[in-house]
Amino acid sequence: LSRVGLLNQYKPGFETFPDGTAEGLHGVRFKCIGNEFGDSFGGVCYEPLRGATSVKEIENHKWTNPDDFEVPELLPGSLEKYVVAIDGLSSLFELATEIRGMDNMLMDMAVAPEMARAMLKQMLDFSIAVNTPVLQKHGDTVDEIGRASCRERV
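and the corresponding structure tokens:
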């Protein structure tokens, strides 16, 4: 079976900039990077909460609104041909590192656990809010929850 992504569609769309970067969730900026093997991934080039020094800054950040996502439809016949995967934003830690920076998240976990908790709580609340409608509509057909690469999103 082939893998088909069931991607939550962000209705407003993400802004693309002249330098080839694109704004993703929560203000993170990415650049899609490929290699000679045909693999691609979104390389983070701007972490909006890298400089945050308080839980209040995390709480007051302009988070992407979960209500701005629409639940996609399954293609007819897709269940016989494909593994159905939703872009479930499943790794709370990975999302947090994209917004805060890997080094900051690791240090927060070690010396500022209230900062790490605030970030992970935001990620958990967002992930539940985005995934719940998809699972309510398609839960009996979803085989996998993960994150789509740049190539799978195109």
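(Above: one complete record from the training split.) Helices lie at 55-60, 78-81, 92-100, 102-111, 113-138, 150-153.
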